[in-house]
Every structure is written in structure tokens, then in C-alpha cells.
Amino acid sequence: MKRNFLPRQLKPLLIFLAILLAGLTAFSQENQPWSQNTSPLPPPTGFVNDYAGVIDPATKQALETKLKNLKDTTNPSVEIAVAVVKTTGERAIFDYSLAVARGWKIGSVDDDNPSALLLIAIDDRKYFTQVSKDLEDELPDGVVGSLQRQFLVPEFKKANYAKGISDTIDAYIATIRNKGNTSGNANTIRQPSSDNGSGGAFFGLFCCAVIILIVIVILIASRNHKGGGPSAGDRNRWGGGGFGGGGGGSSGSDIASAVIGGIIGAALSGGSSSSSSDSGSSSGGDWGGFGGGGDFGGGGAGGDW
After folding, report:
1. 3-state secondary structure of 28
2. CATH code at 178?
3. Burial class of residue 31 (count of CB atoms within 10 Å of its CB; 0-12, 13-18, 19+)
4. Given this model, what pLDDT does residue 191 score?
């Protein structure tokens, strides 16, 4: 029976590849344990979801009515959601609100799916309004920031959270119906999408490392194949076997290819996990849910009080 042949030169490299893969996988899972497409909050039960208990029932019902009417009387339908939490934990409010907006799939599944999410973190004293790509003409980033500072911040400083939210939503609705024409003219800096943040940079470096290692493996394998096969010493040491010695044997290049294929597969699956984890996090409840869109690209504005 022929024994599998693995050149001695490849052994340290393959061990290094295995250690590198394990280390990078652990690092990735530790530093990015969440997806920007999966909501960290439960499925919504309405347009307004208050997990901090700061909106009184009358104001909440009034907001639900206004937001449903906005959806029913606009074409294409505009969906606006409100989420109030105590804290976003270790996540930046931009990343947190983007994950909620996408995970709840706010907006229509049609080509035109204008939508927005106002998310407030009470204990963090921060807020952010995510605006979908199809609503940015009606709610430009500068206008959103101006309206928040005009209507939300003054009331929040007095702990009048329900009034601040209601007044801000009223301003958003009026601006949308007026096609973005407001007196606000502030130049709010748009937040960059975190899709191109540390996760993307990490994945790019990982791919570069894998490519370099692939080149090294190919060079070593090519050198071992020069001259038609292994040296006599190698044949004697392995009992007459060789690279491609027949049924049951496997060459060093085949083993290297298998290892490299596994690494590339792991890298690709890790890089695409955020975009493939949408399911199971969209809207629900008796109210009918949002439209299934979620086309948010980082537009909007936020701040603190």
C-alpha cells in the first residue's frame, strides 16, 4: 500500500496556514459578532417600539396613526419607524441603528422603497435617524440634522422624550410631503457606512495574506515537481512511493490545494456572513409588519443631547 507523500518543505507552511486560519477566525468572531443586516432588537410590533418606557400610550397611539396615514397616502409608500432603547451597549449608535433599519426591513420591496428609522438611546443620550437611499431627496442629511436639533434636542434636554419624538416625526412628515423644502439648511456630516469599516479592512488583509501564501505554496510545489518526481532519497525514505504514484496516493500539491481551498472557502463565507444573515429578523406582529425593504446605505444624521 502506498503512503501519502507530503514534502517536508510543505509541512511547516501548512501548519502555519492552519494556525493562521484558526487565529483569524477567532479574531473575526470576537471583534465582529454581529451583522449589520440582523436587528439586535426583537421584531417590531408597530411603527413605534419603545423599549425604554418613555412614550406615554396616548402619544404612542397618535404616532402610530400618523405613520400609518403617511404610509397609506404616499406613493411610493413611505415607512418611518421609531425605536427607543436604553442603550446600544458597546456598539456605536450609527451601526446599531443601521442594523435595526436593515433587519426590520423597513420600506417596500419595490424598486422605490423610501423609509427611515429614528432610533434613540436614552441612557447613552444619543440619537440617529437612518434614511434609506430612496428618501434622501426628501430628507437630506443636513435637513435631518437641522430638524433634530430644532425639535428633538430641546425637549430631550428637559426629559420630554415623548414630545421631542412626536415633534420630530411631525417635522419629518411635513418635510416629506413638501418634498424636502424646509427652512433648515445645516450641513450635517453624513456618517460613513460601516460596511467599509474595520470589518472590510480586516477581510481585505486576510485575503492578501492568503494570496501571498498561495504563491509560496505553488513555488514550493513547482520546485518539487522539477525533474519528473522526487529524489531517490525521498523514494527510499517513503518506501518507493512518490508524487502521483497511483491509486490511493495523494500528491503534496493536491494536499496543498485542499488546504488552500478550505481557507479560501472560510474567508469567503466569513466575508459574506453579514449579507446572508437577513432572514428571521424582519418585522412581525398583528399590525402587518413593514414592507420588506431595508435599503439603507448610511444616509441620515444623529447626535447627542
Report:
1. helix
2. 3.10.310.50
3. exposed
4. 41
| Angle (deg, nearest 10), helices 57-73 and 161-177 | 10
Query: Sorting pLDDT into bands at 50, 70 and 90, what band is 190?
Result: very low
Q: How far apart are CA 197 and CA 23, in angstroms?
A: 20
Q: What is the DSSP pairing of strand 126-131 with strand 115-121?
A: antiparallel
How do strand 126-131 and strand 79-85 relate by DSSP bridges?
A: unpaired
Residue type, 129: T
Residues 6+ apart with CB under 8 A from 68: 47
Nearest to 67 by CA among 142, 187, 168: 168
**Residue pointed to by grid coordinates 443631547:** 305
- Read off the pLDDT of each residue in 162-174 and give the average, rounded to a whole number: 98
Expressed as residue numbers, the domain containing 215 is: 1-305
Residues 260, 234: Cα–Cα separation, whole Å: 24
Coil vs helix vs strand at 36: coil
Q: Report whether 34 contacts 99 (CB < 8 A).
A: yes
Cβ atoms of 302 and 93 within 8 Å: the answer is yes
Number of structural domains (the chain) is: 1
pLDDT at 300 exceeding the cut of 90:
yes
Residue 278 three-state SS: coil
> What is the spatial distance between Cα 136 and Cα 144, in angstroms, rounded to a whole number?
10
Cα torsion through 240, 243, 248, 250, rounded to 10: 140
Within 10 angstroms of residue 226's Cβ, the number of other Cβ atoms is: 7
Strand, helix or coil for residue 45:
coil
Distance CA 285, CA 253 (A): 55
| CA separation for the pair 170, 303 (Å, rounded) | 19
Kind of pairing between the strands at 115-121 and 79-85:
parallel
Record the cell numbers describing residue 124, joined without a space.
Answer: 447613552
Residues 6+ apart with CB under 8 A from 157: 305
Report pTM: 0.60
